[in-house]
């Protein structure tokens, strides 16, 4: 058992008969009344995010997890296949466990958190950004760059990302995996 003083980002806890990962937290000490911790929790079973407030000193039930490096092998329908980089053991995860499955490229390494009590995977953490090649986009119109206009572009994994008008087919772009948005064009 831990208390609210042990709360940190990435901590996995049992709450309301489910396992949640703490995405963000804030210790609040108002001028009047007791202190409390405001948290944003993400369910590791269904992916829903909820806001919750714990009073200071509240006991929380933590879940012991281990983090391992896995390599993404290939998608198969709604299932994604991964291989442990150390033991070469393969696991299959459903699409809804992943934060941004459309941005996963074959051969990419991810960090998977595994519950040590049940040996079941809890969450998949991708790199903060990925570099992908644009496979299809409409050509930009010359002289239409004064505004922050964007156009849809399809990248090599099949995801559709809004990009500036100067991006062309064959360009490599950096994409933020948390929001799925364009960051910059990558020069080789």
UniProtKB/TrEMBL annotation:
Molecular functions per Gene Ontology: translation elongation factor activity
Pathway connected to this protein: Protein biosynthesis; polypeptide chain elongation
Gene3D superfamilies with a match to the protein in the record: 2.30.30.30, Nucleic acid-binding proteins (2.40.50.140)
GO terms of biological process kind: peptide biosynthetic process
Record keywords, A-Z: Cytoplasm, Elongation factor, Protein biosynthesis
CDD domains: S1_EF-P_repeat_1 (cd04470), S1_EF-P_repeat_2 (cd05794)
Primary location recorded for the protein, binned into one broad class: cytoplasm
PROSITE patterns named in the record: EFP
Record Pfam families: EFP, EFP_N, Elong-fact-P_C
GO cellular component, one term: cytosol
Subcellular location, record wording: Cytoplasm
Superkingdom to which the source organism belongs: Bacteria
Elongation factor P C-terminal domain residues: 130-185
Signal peptide: none
Family of the protein in this entry: Belongs to the elongation factor P family.
HAMAP family attached to this UniProt entry: EF_P
PANTHER family membership: ELONGATION FACTOR P, ELONGATION FACTOR P (EF-P) FAMILY PROTEIN
Protein name in the entry: Elongation factor P
UniProt gene name: efp
């Amino acid at each position: 058992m831990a208390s609210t003083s042990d709360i940190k980002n990435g901590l996995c806890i049992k709450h309301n008969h489910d396992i949640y990962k703490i995405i963000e937290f804030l210790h609040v000490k108002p001028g009047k009344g007791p202190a409390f911790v405001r948290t944003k929790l993400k369910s590791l079973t269904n992916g829903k995010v909820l806001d919750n407030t714990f009073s200071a000193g509240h006991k929380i039930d933590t879940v012991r997890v281990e983090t391992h490096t896995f390599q993404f092998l290939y998608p198969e329908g709604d299932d994604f296949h991964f291989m442990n980089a150390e033991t070469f053991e393969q696991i299959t995860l459903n699409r809804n466990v992943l934060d941004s499955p459309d941005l996963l490229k074959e051969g990419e390494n991810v960090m998977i958190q595994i519950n040590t009590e049940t040996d079941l995977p809890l969450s998949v953490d991708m790199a903060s950004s990925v570099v992908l090649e644009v496979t299809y986009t409409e050509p930009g119109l010359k002289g239409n760059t004064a505004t922050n206009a964007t156009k849809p572009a399809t990248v090599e994994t099949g995801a559709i990302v809004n990009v500036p008008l100067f991006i062309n087919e064959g360009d490599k772009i950096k994409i933020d995996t948390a929001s799925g948005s364009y960051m910059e064009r990558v020069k080789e």
